[in-house]
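In response to the reviewer comment on reproducibility (Comment 2.3), we provide here a single inverse folding case reported in full, input and output, so that an independent group could reproduce the run without further information from us. The structure tokens appear first.
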């Protein structure tokens, strides 16, 4: 069968229960930690390095996560130490307990330079109320007034609440590296778009891929623009990375991602990951025959109603797509009196 002609298949229909593991390949354990959000879990993998384990991603730092980790360490990991933590990208559900593994378990941390810098910077940057530049950014997006008022007065999401303190020191992973994990050699390919400098690992010795959130089944990775870099074009980064990584995708690979179920059918899935955004950009362009703020652009982008819980993610994703159309010269941008950008198609 030619690659890309197979459908997407899930060899395991049921994820591991809390504190338990499923061996998805020789010496490779799949585990889960809960998240207190709509996306209610993150996948964790442990690879057997002989006298120790390498853990891929860690979950949030919370009392509950630490208790589940203890159960995993005593149970499926059989008391063997975690010698190394590899973090695919800087988001808190992945990096949350890396510092804890370093300080409490003596593990070394391997990740990309950008992931480490971002995670450590954000972990240290604790805020009681949003900064003025964040509020200006929300205004520029045309954020819903009630949500704006609420956010302006309350403690924002802080990395420090979900990510354990990170000590100095890590080992850098970069594009083109070959790393040995769990008795296999893995090619490192760097993704972008969902998170800057996101590491993925492609086994040279068998059919495994550790894909983090760069390649996920059944849900689309959030692609957002934030106050840290309001002019960013992560949609372009995402499309470039997916096109580039597609050349390594094969139908026989088992993709072990950061969320949802392990799957096969990577060539088709990667095509979908690219096409979904081209489709969204086309619908958005058609919608912008009249000037709109980012906050008004949900209908063409999301085929569902956006409740308050999803509003923040939807807003940053809308801006990401608008920034892309702007960067490629398809829309214009003007600032309204209230500080909101109005976007309109250039015809
Ligand atoms: Zn994630």
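Designed residues, in position order:
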């Amino acid at each position: 069968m030619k690659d890309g002609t197979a459908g997407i298949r899930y060899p395991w229909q049921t994820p591991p229960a809390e504190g338990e593991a499923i061996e998805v390949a020789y010496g490779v354990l799949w585990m889960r930690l809960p998240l207190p959000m709509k996306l209610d879990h993150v996948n964790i993998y442990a690879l057997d390095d002989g006298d120790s384990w390498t853990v891929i991603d860690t979950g949030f730092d919370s009392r509950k996560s630490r208790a589940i980790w203890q159960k995993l360490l005593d149970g499926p990991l059989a008391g063997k130490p975690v010698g190394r933590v590899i973090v695919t990208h800087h988001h808190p559900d992945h990096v949350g307990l890396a510092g804890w593994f370093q300080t409490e378990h003596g593990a070394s941390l391997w990740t990309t330079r950008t992931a480490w810098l971002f995670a450590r910077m954000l972990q240290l940057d604790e805020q009681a109320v949003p900064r003025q530049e964040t509020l200006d950014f929300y205004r520029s997006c045309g954020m819903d007034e009630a949500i704006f008022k609420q956010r302006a007065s309350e403690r924002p999401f802080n990395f420090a609440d979900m990510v354990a303190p990170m000590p100095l020191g890590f080992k850098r992973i970069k594009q083109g590296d070959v790393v040995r994990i769990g008795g296999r050699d893995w090619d490192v390919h760097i993704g972008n778009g969902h998170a800057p400098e996101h590491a993925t690992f492609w086994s040279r010795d068998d059919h495994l891929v550790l894909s983090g959130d760069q390649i996920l089944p059944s849900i689309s990775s959030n692609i957002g623009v934030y106050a840290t870099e309001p002019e960013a074009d992560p949609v372009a980064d995402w499309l470039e990375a997916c096109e580039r990584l597609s050349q390594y995708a094969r139908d026989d690979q088992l993709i072990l991602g950061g969320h949802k179920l392990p799957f096969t059918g990577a060539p088709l899935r990667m095509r979908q990951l690219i096409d979904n955004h081209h489709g969204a950009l086309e619908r958005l362009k058609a919608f912008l025959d009249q000037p709109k703020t980012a906050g008004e652009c949900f209908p063409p982008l999301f085929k569902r109603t956006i409740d308050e819980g999803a509003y923040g993610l939807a807003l940053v994703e809308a801006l990401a797509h608008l920034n892309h159309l702007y960067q490629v010269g398809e829309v214009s941008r003007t600032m309204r009196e209230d500080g909101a950008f109005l976007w309109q198609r250039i015809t």
